[in-house]
Amino acid sequence: MSHDDAAVEHSLPGGGRDNARFRAVARVCIPEASALDEGQWRDAEGIVARALAGRPASVRRQIALFMRVLDGLALVRHGRVFTALPADRATRLLESLSRSRLLLMRRGVWGVRTLAFMGYYARADAARAIGYRAAAAGWSARGESGVIT
Amino acid sequence: MIEREYDVVIIGSGAGGGTTAQELSKLVADGRRVLLLEQGGRLADDEFTGRELDMSDALYEDAGGFLTADGTTTLAFGRVYGGSTVVYTGTSLVAPRRVIERWNVPGLEHSDIERRSRRYMAENNVHHLPDDEINDNNRLFVVGCERAGYHAEQFPLNVRGCRGSSLCNLGCPNAAKMGTNRVQLPVAERRGVEIVTRAEALRVEDRAVIARVRARAEGEKGAPSEWAPGTYRIRAGIVVCAGGAVGTSALLLRSGLGRAVPRLGERFTCHPAHILVAEHTHPITNDVGHPKSFYLDRAEAEGFVLETCMYFPFVTAKNLTGFGAQHSTFMRAFPRLQMILVLACDKAVSGNRVTVDKSGRPVVHYRFTDAVITSLVRATRASARIFFAAGAERVHAPSADPQLIERAQADALDSLIDDRHFQSGRISISAAHLMGGCGMGRSARDSVTDSWGRVHGVPWLRVADSSLFPDALEINPYVTVMALADRTAQAVQQDAGELLGGSVTVTTA
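ok -> structure tokens follow
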């Protein structure tokens, strides 16, 4: 990994620097994330960091670069970096990029939102909170059959 | 480099490799040495926990997040003892006659595919689930289809003692799914086939495989490899590649076979798919019970297939288009969600192919043709009709604008769901039916192998997986992979005397 690559990846969860950009994206994607405490944020960031560690370096670089692009675009459009934008403006910016004519922008949004969802919903307490109950024991864990009630 | 010598080396342990290993275990009785290499690990039964990320990491290539070159499609394929048969839902169908006839491969008859398919379906305990094991998510699909004027069909499944965990795609935690890890590979090992896990085939050379065996990382699931870590040159009279459409194509390209067979890597298809979700007013049984019990086959008429499905929190979140409050509202409705997977029956086209990058890593080039987009949009409209007919209050449709369609708008589906709203890179598209790259055909001018998996011009090299498909299959492919692998194994037995020397007992199917 070159020095530049290292600097870029530094801004990813688990990369060493603060995770302000990831948290800002996650709050836009999942409004409930604003209620996470520090321990829960660390869990989410740990999940994402482990997932990214196993992905090709090119994927990590692209995601980290897109996080920086987000900051740059926020600065140009709103005079503040993405992490400093109020929720409504951050949402509108991400929404407009997700509908961009440029595939690279759409892919960038898709990538960071996917990471945000991974960090948030792969936590056991988030799965419970939305009512997900799958278990190895299947039907016998529910005491019910497949018949519509 | 450590040297080893075998008569036959099989690369891959999924539907193709597992079948080949079981069939070629008959050679062991003749004193032949048969080896199978599997890149992934061998998991113990109690390591199948059903936890979403842990299992994705342990069972799938790139944890299930392998992306096509332009980043618009996620390809899911197994990397574990048993390959993709560990992570499929066990849906077991015979290839349609029209598809095999359209393939037009000299020497390949539908009747032969059907006969072999039925043998493996019996071996894998394929049957229909009884009515009382069908969950609401599936029942509502059947009801919706009936009311919308469609006829849903029940999937035959290869399960034994299914408890309805709904976790098939994360590896069955109850050892109920009859993949090659449960059926064919154990038979092969009992008969003397050696299986080495955590062994990645780097390239094939003239009658040899170069493979790297890696150590188990700290905290990684699965047993250590049967061999010591290191790089091996394994000499073999016959090499059978069964690493799947992506794995086998990339392996042979890395090995420089592209010069001998210029069609190598071409004609890649994958049944691109996306998930549609609808919200009901009351809870339904969805995350319990077999997730994929019914389907609607519109392949011939409209170019798509609909299947019931149910996914896990992260995968569901990822597959709902968009983000923010509306997305969260849908996620919080999880116990009331019904899901349908729509699959487009794509065609092999120029440019959709497997290549390798400078480091030898596979790169899959895949673009959506207009026909595929039209199929997905048609499928989305049909699904929305089925959801509303089943009583759903709102439907999330990625190729609609707005994406959330309320029941009151159900009469306007044709205008709301339209090709122009399909934006690649925004909609989550995934594929698990990876096909082609080493297609069967007449000669090296039009294909990579003959109908028995023999690579044109390279008699010691064979293929036995979904890379053999010259075009999309239009159904779930694993049974057809087993049938084709059975043919490859039969040809290996027939040719073994000539290629390996000495006498060989030939067993025909």
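Chain B touches chain A through 58 residues (CB under 8 Å).
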